[in-house]
Amino acid sequence: MEKLTAIIPTGNEEHNIEAVLRSVDFADEIMVVDSYSTDRTVDLAKDHTNFIIQREYENSASQKNWAIPQATHEWILLVDADERISENLRLEIEEILKSGTDKDAFWIKRQNYFMGQKLNYSGWQGDKVIRLFKKSKCRYEDKHVHAEVLVDGKTGMLKNKLDHHTYKDLEHYLAKSDRYSTWGAYDRVEKVKAVTAYHLIVKPLFGFFKKYILKLGILDGKVGLILAGQYSSYLFIRALKMWRIKEGENLKRE
C-alpha cells in the first residue's frame, strides 16, 4: 500500500484545526504548515502531529509549493483547514493507495456549506479541486488566490465529496472577502488595460444575475441571495482596487 502525507495549511484556525486533523488521521504522516498563528492553532495541532512547520504567509500557492517537497511520501492529500475528509472519501482514497493507479492526481468534488446550510446551487454545483496528487508530478500555479494544481501527467475524478465549511462568522467572512479581493486585483491588474464602467458597474450587476438566476442561487433561499450579493460586491471592490493599483496605490496584502 502506498503511503500518504496529509498537508494542512493553517493561519489562526483554532476553530477548525482539530476537526480537520481528525478527518485525516488515517494518513501515514500529517504535516501542518502554519503561517505563525497568534491563536491556539499550533498548540491544538500538537495533540495530533509533531510535524509542524512555520513560514510567513505570502499567498496560498507559495505556501503550499514550499511545503509539498518537505513531505516524506510521494502521495499528498492537501486539505484546507475548513475542509473535512468524509468516511466514504477516506475509504475511497485508501482503496486507491492499496490497489494502485495510473493517475498522478485526482479531482475531488466539494459539498459546500454556508451559514450552516448545505448549498445545492448558487454556482457551487460543479465545485471541484485537486487534493490528492503525487508530489513529483504536481505544483500550484503562481496565483495569489484560487490557484489550482498543475499536473504533469494523468488526472482522475473521485466519486465521493469533500466537505467544505466556508463560513465561521460574519466578521471573518467579510475580512476574507476583502483579502481575496486584494489578491484578485493584483492577479488581474496587468491583464486589464483600463478599469472602466464595465468593470465597476456591468460586471458586478451581471455577476449578481449570473449567481442568483443563471446558477439558480434563488433555489438556495436566503443564503443564495447573500452569496449572489456578496459576489457582486466582490467584483466591484476588486475592480476598484485594480483602479487604485494602476494609480500607484500600494494595497496591503496579508
What is the structure about, briefly put?
The chain is an alpha/beta fold and 254 residues long. The chain has helices spanning 17-23, 41-45, 60-67, 87-99, 170-188, 197-214, 221-246; strands at residues 4-10, 29-34, 51-54, 75-78, 83-85, 105-114, 117-118, 128-134, 138-140, 149-151, 155-157, 162-165. Helix content is 38%, strand content 22%.
- Count of structural domains: 2
| CATH fold topology of the largest domain | Spore Coat Polysaccharide Biosynthesis Protein SpsA, Chain A
Beta-strand fraction estimate: 15-25%
Kindly state the number of beta strands. 12
- Intertermini distance: 40 Å
Sheet with the most strands, sense and barrel status? 10 strands, mixed
> Mind telling me the CATH superfamily name of the largest domain?
Spore Coat Polysaccharide Biosynthesis Protein SpsA, Chain A
Helicity, in percent? 25-40%
What would you say the CATH architecture of the largest domain is? Alpha-Beta Complex
Order of helices and strands: EHEHEHEEHEEEEEEEHHH
Mean pLDDT: 95
